[in-house]
Specification:
alpha+beta; Rossmann fold; Tumour Suppressor Smad4; 2 domains; globular; ATP-dependent diacylglycerol kinase activity; phospholipid biosynthesis; ATP binding
C-alpha cells in the first residue's frame, strides 16, 4: 500500500520531545519507501494551511502531540475529507490510548503504513458566546477542568504526579455547583462536583472516567459526580483509574447524542486539555458527530 504522509508537529506539546518522536517515525516510514513531509507550524494559521495542502496532495495527516493536538487537527481533517494518523507525543495521550495506539515508533509506523482507516466519532461543542470547535476526547466542567487547567499551566511536577497532585488540590478547594444537564431533551439537576461528556473512555493521563464509552457508537457518555465529603472524594480518586468509580452511589452515568450544560454558580470547563472558559446560566451545547473522521488505528 503506497501512502504519503504529512507529519504536523506541535512543538509545544506538554511532555517529551515531539520533534524527536516525529523524526523516529519519519525515518521508519522513509525506509519503507513512503514520501514524508514534517511540518512544525509556528501558529494555527500556518498549521491550517499545511493541513489543507496535505489533504489536497492526498497525504495522511499525522498529528504529532497530545490530546489537544489531535483535537485541533481532527475537525479540520474531517471537514476536508482527509485521513488522520496519530503519533502520541503529549502529556496525557488519552485519545491515542482510546485508539489503542502503541508508543513504540516501529509499531506506530506499521499502523500508519498498513492499517485501514476507521470511521471515528468526534464532539462538536458550542460555547455560551456562540463560538464552536471540535473535540476528540471529552468536554468536562468543574473539578476536572480545574485539574486540566493547572496541569496545562504548571509543569514543575514530575509527569506522573501532575494529574494526581493537581487532582488532590482541586478536591480540597472545590465548591459545589447546581448543575443542570439536558440529555436529548430530558433535564436533570444535581448538586455536583464535576461532569464529563465523553467520546473517549480516558482522560487525565489514563483515568477511565467513562469506562463504557466508545468512539464509534454515535453516542456520548455523560458522567456526573455529585458533591460529597471532601475526604471521601479524595479516597475515591484512585477508583477513577480503574473505572470503578461509576459503582459509587454519588456517580451517575447516562448516554446521549445532544447535551447542554449550565451551572449556578458558574464553573470552569474545558476539553482535551484546553481550557474553554466558564459555564454558568448560558449553556454549553455538546453534540456527537458520528463517523466524523477517518483515523488509522
Amino acid at each position: 500500500m503506497n501512502r504519503s504522509f504529512t507529519l504536523l508537529v506541535n512543538r509545544a506539546a506538554g511532555s517529551g520531545d515531539p520533534l524527536a518522536a516525529a523524526a523516529r517515525v519519519e525515518r521508519i516510514l522513509r525506509e519503507s519507501g513512503a514520501r514524508v513531509e514534517t511540518v512544525a507550524p509556528s501558529g494555527p494559521a500556518e498549521g491550517k494551511r499545511a493541513l489543507a495542502q496535505a489533504v489536497i496532495r492526498g497525504d495522511v495527516v499525522v498529528a504529532v502531540g497530545g490530546d489537544g493536538t489531535v483535537s485541533a487537527l481532527a475537525g479540520e481533517v474531517a471537514r476536508l475529507g482527509g485521513i488522520l494518523g496519530v503519533i502520541p507525543a503529549g502529556r496525557g495521550n488519552d485519545f491515542a490510548r482510546m485508539l489503542g495506539l502503541p508508543t513504540d515508533p516501529h509499531a506506530v509506523a506499521t499502523i500508519l503504513l498498513d492499517e485501514e482507516p476507521a470511521e471515528t466519532d468526534l464532539i462538536s461543542t458550542t460555547a455560551p458566546d456562540g463560538t464552536s470547535r471540535v473535540v476528540a476526547g471529552s468536554i468536562y466542567a468543574g473539578i476536572d477542568a480545574v485539574v486540566a487547567d493547572r496541569v496545562a499551566r504548571g509543569h514543575w511536577l514530575p509527569r506522573s504526579w501532575q494529574y494526581p497532585m493537581n487532582g488532590l488540590y482541586a478536591l480540597a478547594t472545590f465548591r459545589p455547583t447546581r448543575l443542570t444537564v439536558v440529555i436529548d431533551g430530558t433535564e436533570r439537576t444535581f448538586k455536583a462536583a464535576c461532569v464529563t461528556v465523553a467520546n473517549s473512555a480516558y482522560y487525565g493521563s489514563g483515568m477511565r472516567i467513562a469506562p463504557e464509552a466508545s468512539i464509534d457508537d454515535g453516542h456520548l457518555d455523560i458522567v456526573v459526580i455529585e458533591a460529597f465529603g471532601r475526604l471521601d472524594m479524595i479516597r475515591a480518586l484512585p477508583k477513577v483509574y480503574g473505572g470503578t468509580h461509576v459503582d459509587l452511589p454519588t456517580v451517575h452515568t447516562f448516554r446521549g447524542r445532544s447535551i447542554t450544560l449550565s451551572a449556578e454558580p458558574a464553573i470552569l470547563y474545558g476539553g482535551d486539555g484546553e481550557t474553554e472558559g466558564m459555564v454558568g446560566s448560558g449553556a454549553v451545547l455538546i453534540d456527537v458527530v458520528p463517523a466524523a473522521v477517518q483515523i488509522l488505528r
